[in-house]
Amino acid sequence: MKAVVVSSPGGPEVLEVVERQKPILKAGWTLVKIQGFGINHSEIFTRQGLSPSVQFPRVLGIECVGLVEQTTRPDLKIGQQIISIMGEMGRAFDGGYAEYTLLPNEQIYPIKTELDLESLIALPETYYTAFGAFLNLKIEEKDCVLVRGATSGVGIAFAKLLKGKFPEIHLVGTSRNLAKEEQLKAVGFDQVILEKDGVLQSEESFTKILDLVGPRHIK
Questions:
Q1: I want to staple 96 with a disulfide (CB 3.0 to 4.6 A). Which of 62, 64, 176, 209 is the partner?
Q2: Quick one: average pLDDT of 81-87?
């Protein structure tokens, strides 16, 4: 099979496509034929050597969509579509940047969907993160919600989840470029505020804030 292997930390140039043996099934694990995967910031940090627990060489990738190739889990069927995210995937063991990967049975999630494959591949880690933020904020319909970094994938996913639950809630997003205002309104934002040098160009107050820019900006 082909896999993207990082043998030593560095920039994008250390990502090397190589031929290697397909993983061999073992007790408690499932072999997955990968249909696609997302690329996440944490993988960039790992590639750069900023994840101390990760040993190289390593196949990165903390998420994937795929088909069950072989399994030791009785409820899974060969050819069944699954997703998998996190759980030390791409860190303690090889992850999704490959044609096949071997994953622990407990982090295999069977799915049924009418989404096209391209849309499905874009969902797992992005929407998992957005949904976690939604739960942690304990949002109520009366809230006025701000999303900093609204144009990010997580920002857009959060907007869709929030408006799906509370269609009438007031949702505001920030961007450093107001040319993206119509794009944000199309996915559910009611208002877009310009953010300039880390400062919101507004005096408006909010009851809940999702900060996707970074804690160094919080005041």
A1: 64
A2: 95
Total-model pTM? 0.82
Cis ω for the linkage preceding 104 (within 30 of 0): no
- The backbone torsions φ and ψ at residue 37, rounded to the nearest 5 degrees and listed phi first, read -155, 155
Per the listing, tokens 């591949």 go with 121
In this structure, is the dihedral angle defined by the CA atoms of residues 37, 43, 48 and 52, taken in order, positive or negative? negative
Contact, 193 vs 124, CB < 8 A? Answer: no
pLDDT in tens, 4-26: 999 999 999 999 999 999 999 99
Given a contact cutoff of 8 angstroms between Cβ atoms, the answer to whether 89 and 107 are in contact is yes
3-state secondary structure 90-157: CCCECCCCECEEEEEHHHCEECCCCCCHHHHHCCHHHHHHHHHHHHHHCCCCCCEEEEECCCCHHHHH
- Above pLDDT 70, what percent of the chain? 98
